[in-house]
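Archive transcription. Copying these from loose printouts into the bound notebook so they stop getting lost. Printout 1 of 2:
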Amino acid sequence: MILPALEAYDVSIPVVVVGAGAAGLCAALAAKEAGAEVLVLERDPVPRGSTALSAGLVPAAGTRWQRAAGIEDSPDRFAADIMAKAGGEPDPAEVETVTRAAGPALEWLADAHGLDFSVITDFRYPGHSANRMHGLPSRSGEELVDRLREAAERAGIDILCDAQAVALHAAPDGRVTGLTLRRPDGTEDMLGCGALVLACNGYGGNKDLVRQHVPALSDALYFGHPGNQGDAILWGAALSAATRHLSGHQGHGSVAHPAGILITWATITEGGVQVNLEGRRFSDEGHGYSEQAAKVLEQPEGIAWTVFDARIAGIARQFEDFRQAEAAGAILAADSIPALAAATRLPEAALRETLGQVEHLKATGGTDAFGRSFAGVPPISPPYRAVRVTGALFHTQGGLAVDSGARVTRSDGRAFPNLFAAGGAACGVSGPHASGYLSGNGLLTAVALGRLAGGGAAALATPP
């Protein structure tokens, strides 16, 4: 809802950030560093959001961690990978902006705020031509959002929780002058602002918007944060802001079912496969986990089994989510194909035939009927591992159009006077299809655009 600007507000803050995930907290840290007073609004009792549900990995090119590991990479190479994965459909200017901003943003978080990043070197996600995924020690989104929150608290940034922004107040020229906040008890406050950063993610939790823009996943498990109700997009539409690629989204074809735990795609990239309840493969799993969500959901009961081995489990174990899945008993072990078939209740003959075909392709460097090349892919061998999974919608990738400074723009390209967007609130760099999602694109725009938005908001809100 957009309401008229008020002559006076209960209290006014130079920079207000809506959302305390990675995007919002990076924006707040950047605004504070630039000298602005900042307030972060979070609708939940504690900051978690979609960041906490992710693997916490941020792709960045040309970082000092890559150089230390002997990895050759550059923002241009990263940008080319993004455009290739999404068929050239993302905005090239935004792709250039985020790929150039991501590395410096991670080094800033490390140097100024003590976040202990390192680069993953033992496996590579589909579509990335270099090892460029950076994460904290636990490789979990929970650790990432916790460390960002702690950094914000050390910086003296106020985070107001249980405070839901339900309306924006705007002048006729589009300048946002304030917000209406609602508390759990129904009371409301009027908060004025000099500049506003929308970092409240996309619309994945809004069934009506999902049905409208991503009908293929309208009945899928939603593995994102329920607070992602599309507020930024709805406010933007009411202000006549431009939106782009609203059908774009990140799915995931590997959520343990019924445990509801994300299973890293390293189980596939390192040589694993997915089979349906008939014991048969049904797609090129190596293309990407986002588009795999719909393919899994097309299978009987919307279920697949990811089959891998102990070697791959050792690689996957660096992720906190995988360790939790093991602790929950979701990862099954078997010393032979008959034992694997018994544990999974899959037809033994079909499973044996499927795995035999895969290992033959690996041995000969062949390509299967789905187009997956097995050249150079390591074999899987006993002891086997398997996990029952389903497909899920993680978050949406379309959103408000932004310029190179993360300012929200109108359809004619003109920027709003003081409105910014980052993370899932902004249009990402994945294009309009699930297949365009390159691993890490969500946290890429959260961290890169978040820092840009916070610095820009501070410049507009703080007197020279």
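Printout 2 of 2:
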Amino acid sequence: MKSETITSKQFFSSTENITDTTVTRASIFNVKEKKEKAVKKNDTKKARPLNLVVLISTFIVMIVGAYSVYLLQPDFDQFHTNRINSSFGFYFLIVTLALFFFHVGLFLYNVYLYFQYKPIESVTDDLLPTVTVIVPAYNESKQVWDTLISLVASDFPAEKMQILAVDDGSKDDTWYWMQQAKIKLGDRLTIFQQPENKGKRHALYRGFQLGTGDVFVTVDSDSIVEKDTLRNLVSPFVVDKNCGAVAGNVQVLNNSQAIIPKMLNVSFVMSFEFMRSVESSLGSVLCTPGAAAAYSKKAVFGCLEDWINQTFMGQPSDIGEDRAMTNMILKQGHHVLFQRNAIVLTNVPEEYKGLYKMFIRWGRSNVRENIMMAKYVFKNFREGSKFGSRLLFLNQSFRIIMTYPFLLFMLFLIVSYPLLFLSSTLLGILILSSFPVLFYGKRYNWSESFWAYSYSIFYTFGLFWIAPYAIATANKRGWLTRGLSEIK
């Protein structure tokens, strides 16, 4: 395996003969960057009226849907009467009511846990553990430079931080930008280049093997950390001696113009700041995100070989490395926590194709890891209460199991009662999406919060097929979104 570990002296001596080339490439990239900024400025101007049109259309559609429910009330009454009078319909009603009360009870419990959650404040410099930050990169171009610069700018003792960047056989200029970061940062950064693309899991594995810190921090190469992110991310390991992993708080970096990132920004806040706060209160965060996560060295080496050699249905696992690592650390009996004050900004897909491929990958990983979790969650896998882990597992399992029955029922309604289905669905979106709107609006920005309504409509009608497809193809390999940047 090819390895390029470069010290400052070695790197500077090796680059003396390519100074002119470097300058030429740098000047080319400066021109390219200026052009990209000009294009982005233009796109922003064009995006504003389009964004407004989408939001206004969203409200018109929901209001029309709600009003249609009112107009179609006699048809709804007849539908319910017919359903209750049939033997199948009566049992279906019982199941529907049971599910309704279960979800209401679960939601209220989640709200209670959310208010119980408090992020752990940063400990002092002398108590901070030594950390190894691992940045795997594949075809990220200049973005990897921004990631590495943001890490070095962290408010974290330099003598306690080791930064390893691994180029996973990129086909673009990622390695060039890593070299440029090395020139600027010197001994603060060590860079490696894989001879071929083997996948993110293998890039991380190399970092785990070479890291010297007591805590490993993984940061995606398309992400930017805030100044206090690292110290907040690793402080729980000092406060909770049984802490095995910590999830960072992921927010969207590229949400200034494109519609999909704007919608995902609100969705991410709900997913992380609400749901992971709930999971953290139970000591059982189910997934530490690749964008920013921390792991104790002891916990990592307790499962490292199982993790790198993990298979599913006889095939090597090349997706879901973050969820798999989290699952294996939970299995060891460790707590997995969430730090709301450890913020990381990450790029998300701006187009439909990139988005659905990302969701398919997540969906497949969710199915695989839920099966793995079933093997230990009802055993005595850790000291203390295991209720929270089991409740979270059952909730996820229920969602997976009910995917196809819900899909079939939806198709039945679309074919038999299209107007009733459409109007009731839009009314449901208006009601249920109001919670994320209120949550995001209270925490951040009210005008941006309305994207939660647009996202719900978009997901319901444009992405509903992902869950059943991911379940049916859970055995398939492939990152899916790798190479999209090359196509662009």
